[in-house]
Amino acid sequence: MHIINVHTRDRIDFIDITSKISELVKDVKEGIAFVFVKHTTCAIFVNENEPGLLDDLKNVLAELVPENKDYKHNVVDANATAHLRSILLKPFCIIPIKSGKLCLGTWQKVFLAELDGPRNRKVIVFIVGK
Amino acid sequence: MHIINVHTRDRIDFIDITSKISELVKDVKEGIAFVFVKHTTCAIFVNENEPGLLDDLKNVLAELVPENKDYKHNVVDANATAHLRSILLKPFCIIPIKSGKLCLGTWQKVFLAELDGPRNRKVIVFIVGK
Amino acid sequence: MHIINVHTRDRIDFIDITSKISELVKDVKEGIAFVFVKHTTCAIFVNENEPGLLDDLKNVLAELVPENKDYKHNVVDANATAHLRSILLKPFCIIPIKSGKLCLGTWQKVFLAELDGPRNRKVIVFIVGK
């Protein structure tokens, strides 16, 4: 089991962690990398690292779970939108591994989605394979 | 492979199944628990067990997939929203295991999301590890 | 590691790939099938194969990530909605296996969701088990 430390820089921030995961699978002939964040206000997703698209994603999250609502959780802690967006985006992904490399498509990158930053986050990577 | 039986109490209901999964991993030094529901109208998610937040989640699901629409599936069976919400929330999750414990963050709990209850649901837990 | 080739027929298209995955698990007593698409504009989901429901899902995706918006990614490539819908639906799933069969519920089928077709897509299936 490996831990990747990620420092996020803004309230909403998408950090490409692909190269950090790639380093961990160099000796794996065939298997799967399981990626998991131990947090309720961030998430993991896989898609293209294109700045315009990442801005579009921020806007989609703002539309799907808008800030200006009377969330009950905000009475406890003023970050309901971060929790709710994390539930939609999910705190994990799986990635196949072959010949020491992640089996990702040309445009696929693995991101930590910070939804209530800036913070220091821990990403667990567990590898099954040989 | 283990089966956890869950009895849900309402049309929409979020049941914390963390302790039931924890009991199954006590002898696992390091691994992953795979959680899967064999149903098309419920789901699995990981987040905080805070009553206000769970109410907020009900409201978000009602906004994203509202009841008052002419869903074609409702001609077959009047539960289209449950299917569509299940597709968004997903019927599975993964959780790393270390030293006989689920590697969850302080606030992370595993929930079965009932979307068309009350019903009896079966949750499969499969553990890979040693 | 197995590859399933899928030819999609329309811009948005949901292809049931359950039988193709089932063929790969016949000799597995107990385990998990991991399903992953190496693409940023399609996804994998599990739910019922009912034509009305699949039409409803198209409408839900059109509501959640509408076409008629000024997406920044469209300056680079006119398929922002496909990327954003893929992020919501996710490019992977897991399915338990028992006695040579996928542990799916009566109504559960595994779908490739084409979001920017028609195209030829590759689905990776990796099996852990014995």
Total strand count of chain A, please? 8
Helix and strand content put the structural class of chain A at alpha+beta
Strand content of chain A: 35-45%
| Gyration radius over CA of chain A | 16 Å
Helix share, percent of chain A:
10-25%
Report the span from N to C terminus of chain A. Answer: 14 Å
Low-confidence stretches of chain A: none
Number of helices of chain A: 3
Widest sheet, order of strands of chain A: 1-8-3-5-6
Describe it for me?
Three copies of one chain form a homotrimer. Chain A is built from three helices and eight strands, in the order ββαββααββββ. Chain A has one domain (about 1-130): Jelly Rolls (Sandwich). The first copy, chain A, has helices spanning about 20, 50-65, 80-90, and strands spanning about 1-5, 15, 30-35, 40-45, 90-100, 100, 110-115, 120-130. Chain A is α+β, with helices and mostly antiparallel strands. The radius of gyration of chain A is 16 Å and the shape is elongated. Chains in contact: A-B, A-C, B-C. The interface of A and B includes residues 87 and 90 of A.
